[in-house]
Here is the input.
Amino acid sequence: DWVEAELDDLEVSGDHGDDSGPLPVVAIVGRPNVGKSTLVNRIIGRREAVVEDVPGVTRDRVTYEANWRGRRFTVVDTGGWDPDATGMGLRIAEQAQVAVELADVIVFVVDATVGATDADEVVGSVLRQSGKPVILAANKVDNQQLELEAAALWSLGLGEPHSVSALHGRSSGDLLDEMLDALPETPQQTFGTERGPARVALLGKPNVGKSSLLNKLAGEERVLVDPMAGTTRDPVDELIELGGRTWRFVDTAGIRRRDRELQGADFYAAMRTRAALERSEVAIVLIDASEPLTEQDLRIIGLVTESGRAMVVAFNKWDLVDEDRRYYLEKEIDRQLVRTPWALRVNISAMTGRHMDRLVPALEKALDSWSTRVPTSRLNAFLTELVQQTPPPVRGGKQPKILFATQASVEPPKFVLFTSGWLEETYRRFIERRIREEFGFAGSPIEVTMKIRE
Ligand code: GDP
Ligand code: GDP
Here is the structure.
């Protein structure tokens, strides 16, 4: 008996959670009918559900803001993703998987009066492998006599079953306390200064000006040699203060050493680039603006895209470009970077110092985009409107619907659309483009995938 309702109240209160940072997320998972929505009502204090009939998109109410003992958090009811679940084996595992991706804590609800079913076992194994804190709620334990049934759920291998009666409220306070204890101090996805220096990979084919740029940046500012990384003789990374913030330029030893042979060999160059990307959050791809863009430049851009890192493309040696050629060069560059229109661009000169002051804001913007989380409410409200204006193309006489969308992760941002049918690639691209326009992900790759309800 799932109730459709308006989208969550985060939106109504005008609080998108981004002023005080993202709230920790608790996901409620479990088979249909185990009592998930009853438990959610219990957690949020039995709010009246409002039924809204919006043609085109099912606006299931799935995320709520909750507060327990003064601690605010977001509750996601995965039951709302799939109101008429039938033959749910695989799908439930999928739901659990998405819950794991987006949540800080998972509450796994099992009907203690039924016991662990095959589907419960499947969910249990997904959750065990996740490494995320899981609280096992043995629901429908309405009285003392049923405690024994709850104890049988130890068999799921998820630790102690917490018996509760969502309907009558029995022990639900204890369950909430347990949940609160498991919540991290700060949600999983916080990023930035708290986590230490932002890590930058400075990439580019030989002779584009990597060491010149590094010298320029390090020369003007204070360079710190990180005692942790590498040996004292040959530090791997350099910490450079720029714009009031410390940045870790990774693998600068490789740049300073000027290992021409190694850099020249494609295979090693790609390996080194991949390794640097692995350790970084944002990449500066340096390109020589005084020469035509080469295969190698595009390959490096390809490697960054593949890595899912934020990206700033810096056209160096801009001082060598004639005034009258600049306009045409910009157009040419647009054309060649058509696959990564989202990359931020700056035109600099490591020699003269031209526009060096634009580099740091570009890095900051790219990192910011990379860790942006769009609240589920805003995302769904936006998509509801978008789909109404431009519905997905009909396929096989059927109009696919977007049932629910969520941003499953950040760094990079990944969106999952839960749909009732296949969305054409062109339509998904359209959605991706519109998400970019609406929420601004300049400098960051984003991913939009769909999960289809069969
Ligand atoms: P969901 O599909 O997992 O969201 O399950 P619901 O919350 O819709 O609950 C399914 C049914 O179980 C409803 O009829 C609820 O009233 C009932 N139910 C939920 N929690 C309890 C409980 O603690 N005890 C009992 N006896 N019934 C419950
Ligand atoms: P790397 O191999 O990528 O580290 O490139 P280097 O920093 O060694 O630079 C290669 C050559 O390009 C050197 O001769 C630099 O002086 C020159 N160079 C670097 N940046 C600029 C620039 O902005 N303008 C001009 N005109 N020359 C530059």
Q: What stands out?
A: The pocket of guanosine-5'-diphosphate (ligand 1) is lined by residues 1, 30, 32-38, 79, 139-140, 142, 165-167 (CB under 6 Å). The radius of gyration is 26 Å. DSSP finds 15 helices and 16 strands in the chain. Residues 425-439 form the longest helix (15 residues).
